[in-house]
Amino acid sequence: MIKYKTVMQPAEIEQVIDKSRFIGHVRPVESKKEAEAFLAEIRSKHKAATHNVPAFVIGDQFQFQWASDDGEPQGTSGAPIVQMLVREELTNIAVVITRYFGGIRLGTGGLVRAYTGTAKLALEASGICAVKELDVLKVRLDYTFFGTLQNLASNGKFEVSETVFEDMVTVDLITEPENTQENKTLISNLTGGGGVILSESKKLVKVRI
């Protein structure tokens, strides 16, 4: 089940619009504190910039939304980026657009296009992805069944992860929730009832879309 959409990784891009340098910075974040730390990092790196415009959206229901125009005319930079993120259903993201003024005024519409356009390019570079909630079955089984289990993973119904080799093999099987019961039955049939499911939990994973 898809919980929300976000980005895979941090990214930075740059473009020049009417002699002004616009640098787009994007980072996936999990909290307001992380987002603020990111903003402080960019402001420190680009102290000489004319503007460092931040836009944050955090929470799987977009609970926290915040932006600043950082000296640009009100409503021309930070707010349009937040609106774009929410419209695209993207969250847990911090965006900071750095501008080095080049001497040509862009006007209200030009500023909105420049800031949102730079943000879009940075988001594309970060890689839009879905965060899905998957089930994790921790299974203990005899070594004789491990090779077969790995081969069965190719059916796409589960992924083998976190393998520990001791007197028996312990593996994490990561599966879509709708396939969990089927995989429990598969383990039982494969091992003749000898395989033991030690625990069952949930895991959030990023999947490119």
Characterization of this structure:
This protein is an alpha+beta fold and 209 residues long. The chain has five helices and ten strands; from the N terminus they run E-E-E-H-E-E-H-E-H-E-H-E-E-H-E. The strands form two sheets. Strands 1, 7, 8, 9 and 10 form a five-stranded antiparallel beta sheet that branches. Strand 2 and strand 3 (20-28) form a beta hairpin. Helix 2 (78-87) crosses helix 3. The longest helix has 20 residues, at 107-126. It is elongated, with a radius of gyration of 23 Å. The model has no long low-confidence stretch (mean pLDDT 94).
Q: Helix/strand-derived class?
A: alpha+beta
Quote the distance from N terminus to C terminus: 14 Å
Radius of gyration: 23 Å
Name the overall outline.
elongated
As residue ranges, the low-confidence spans are none
Number of helices: 5
Would you list the SSEs in sequence order as H and E? EEEHEEHEHEHEEHE
For the largest beta-sheet, the strand count, sense and barrel status come to: 5 strands, antiparallel
Strand content: 35-45%
Instruction: State the total count of DSSP E strands.
Output: 10
Q: Level of helix content?
A: 25-40%
| Integer average pLDDT | 94
Write the layout of secondary structure elements.
Elements: E1 2-7, E2 11-17, E3 20-28, H1 32-45, E4 51-58, E5 64-67, H2 78-87, E6 93-100, H3 107-126, E7 128-141, H4 143-152, E8 159-165, E9 169-175, H5 180-191, E10 196-208
Antiparallel strand pairs: 1-7, 2-3, 3-6, 4-5, 4-6, 7-9, 7-10, 8-9
Helix pairs in contact: 2-3
